[in-house]
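Re-run requested by the PI after the first attempt was lost when the workstation crashed. Everything re-entered from the original request form. Ligand of interest: zinc ion.
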Amino acid sequence: MPTTLIKNGRIVTAVDDYRADILIKDGRIHTIGRDLSVGAEVAVHDAAGLLVLPGGVDVHTHLDWEFGPSRTVDTFATGTKAAAFGGTTTIVDFCNQSKGESPLKGLEDWHRRRASAAVDVGAHMILLDVNAQTLADMKILIEREGVSSFKLFMAYPGVLMVDDGALFQAMRVAGANGAMICVHAENGAVIQVLVQEAVAAGHTSPKYHMLTRPSLMEGEATHRAIRLAELADTPLYIVHLSAAEALAAVTEARDRGIHVHAETCPHYLFLTDKEYDRPEFEGAKFVMTPPLRDAHHQHALWRGLKTNDLQVISTDHCPFCFNEQPYGLKYSKQLGREDFSKIPNGAPGIETRLPLVYDGGVAKGRLSLNRFVDITATTPAKLFGLFPRKGTIAVGSDADLVLFDPNERWTIRAAEHHSRVDYSLFEGREVTGRVKKVFLRGDLIVDGDRWLGRDGQGEFLHRPSSGRL
Ligand code: DUC
Ligand code: ZN
Ligand code: ZN
């Protein structure tokens, strides 16, 4: 492994901001200091004028994931390459139990798929079938397999949803064994009624996806999940929080000292439900769950990031093509052209998280630079058992580093992305701030627009505990 020196950069972590050089050896940060001198055998990268950030940590991705009749279009090779170009060097991806099977089998299958990953990868386990065997297998997953976070769905009856009793049982096992429960918090039964009524009334357009998933029902389920977690004594993580009502429930619980954490995603911070008014079928690009909301929710989310009631921004990268591509219809939004309820729920975002949050947060004066690093790398690493190996720049940490130009202006275009997906939620948006170079455990994997990484270079991240901040 070559030794590398990054010189003259401005190092920014969740708490620090200073100029120094970083010497990398054996994939780790060996020395941080001023004016480090090295021999000719050391590769030197000049970071003058650039920020040196810890590699981004995206704890919510769905690569090569079967979802009802659909499948996300990115393989681990394409999705992690896209992540790297966006400054993300660690992802935690969702694998799932199949009905009637052990979650251990789901993990085994996921390991086969993730073998092509080009950045480091951990796994959360989605539980669909909570029974005595599943509860026993949870302990094996935590202790032996390094999977210490479990996601359960309170939505999608008949596909992914579990009832409150199942959720509560899984919570108790997680709480007693050092793990954390993640929930998709929406009232699935009520939403199903609203969807069936809309379809019966002949409403087919993508806008009805939003109209049938009211923010009140996200708030209700978030409150319910928190109360169950409180009783079960487990840390809880609310994924993809989009609604002011849900945030109010999180805030109330945190004020009482309950261990509840929450993430939101760039699309909820930068887009509103007006996108569903686009002509033709264009609104289908924005069909993700929960849906985009109106501006007052957005203001609440920015406030939550300030008050630390929201601690993480992840992508929920769940890519389906807009038009059918060579991969086939199950990878495409066109599945729901005649019926909004059949549009695969999910949207891409793995490559644009850092620039969007830098631009809309730091450059627009809503977030400090330290807070930007905190919510995109440090806190997700801490919450999911990866810190201090990941999420910071410190002696001994993995040398996952991003050289970031805080001044470059550029325009987001799907055609220039590295994902297999054929659109961006942010097509044509001009942003300030661009990833220039990315190092994964000391290896330069992105250099401008050059890809130097390798499929399969990513390591599996064993995470023995989560949610113990
Ligand atoms: N929830 C997710 O977290 N991802 C994709 C679909 C969904 O509903
Ligand atoms: Zn979800
Ligand atoms: Zn998701």
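Saved to the shared folder this time. The pocket of zinc ion (ligand 3) is lined by residues 60, 62, 316, 318 (CB under 6 Å).
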